[in-house]
Amino acid sequence: MSERVGYVGLGIMGRGMAHNLLKAGFALRVWNRTASRMAPLVEAGAEAGESPADVAAKSDIVIICVSDTPDVEAVVLGENGIIHGAKPGTLVIDCSTISPSATRQMAAALKEKGIAMLDAPVSGGSEGAAKGTLSIMVGGDAEQFERALPAFQAMGKTITHVGPNGAGQTVKLVNQVLLVGNTLAMSEALMFAQAGGVDLQKTYDAISQGAAGSWMFTNRAPQIMQRDWRPGFTIALQQKDVRLCLDAADEMGVPLLCASLVFNLYRTLEAMGLQEEGNHALIKALEHLAGFEAGNI
Ligand code: NAP
Description:
By secondary structure, the protein is α/β, with parallel strands linked by helices. It has two domains: 5-163, Rossmann fold, CATH 3.40.50.720; 170-290, N-(1-d-carboxylethyl)-l-norvaline Dehydrogenase, domain 2. The chain is built from 13 helices and nine strands. It has helices spanning 12-23, 39-43, 52-57, 69-77, 100-111, 125-131, 142-155, 167-195, 200-207, 215-225, 235-252, 257-271, 283-290; strands at 5-8, 28-31, 47-48, 61-64, 91-94, 116-119, 122-123, 134-139, 156-163. The chain has a six-stranded parallel sheet, sandwiched between helices. A three-stranded mixed sheet has the order 7-8-9. The chain is elongated. The protein starts with a strand and ends in a 7-residue tail after the last helix.
């Protein structure tokens, strides 16, 4: 018999992932802080839990996907948190993107009670969550990774065990360092092209498949040319991840030049009230500095 799964946090990501666990045949108990968000899952066959502790008490594996480090701490260690309901032998899997060092501390607190933990942040966006095609980067014991594989396979496609607790979160932050570097490079390149008087679409056609191309340039440069700022990933969430990168870099004593520059550029955009626009709106900060806009309209 497959293990009973609990799911805590039914936001943009969590709701798609939870639906895919149901589709794969797992018995599922869910909990969300805003209770109304549980309704579609209950309609699809899940049980509604009363609290994270209640979900943990009635599950073998509990998956979490909430916003930030303090939020994971609240649902794991807080009042009515998972630690107060889980029996020894329970496995907690955190799919949120949070601090690697806080992850190691939580894993240690759970281990003292005989509860295992895997950090398993994801990439692939809301579309990947809905389609079950996420990339999942997993930190923790190899034995627990094997145990969790059927659940991971219900939610994702590229599933990689990258090391001990905290390693999953570290690899996710590596991903974010690359992502914001590519976003800044794309923005600067488009501003340069605009200033040089070349046609942006022709420039895109000429170079997007070459060595300077990137997922970011291929997918987001066309949106910039159309001045379409709808988010795949919001500035607010991107900024949270850059802050996690900078905090981790500070703990490790390593310089992070591009990410800190991007952090301050996004801060400017937040001050302009643009935090709900897509992360490709980074170019607006450069437009503000340069005094002209990029885009073929
Ligand atoms: P979201 O739509 O804003 O959902 C956040 C969820 O966390 C909601 O269920 C919310 O409950 C819950 N929550 C927040 N604080 C809480 C607290 N203190 N106690 C209990 N529940 C709390 O966010 P999302 O896009 O699903 O993102 C979730 C995580 O996945 C984040 O760590 C994010 O960085 C990561 N991620 C997101 C994407 C993406 O494209 N969206 C991609 C990869 C990774 P309420 O419903 O009550 O507000």
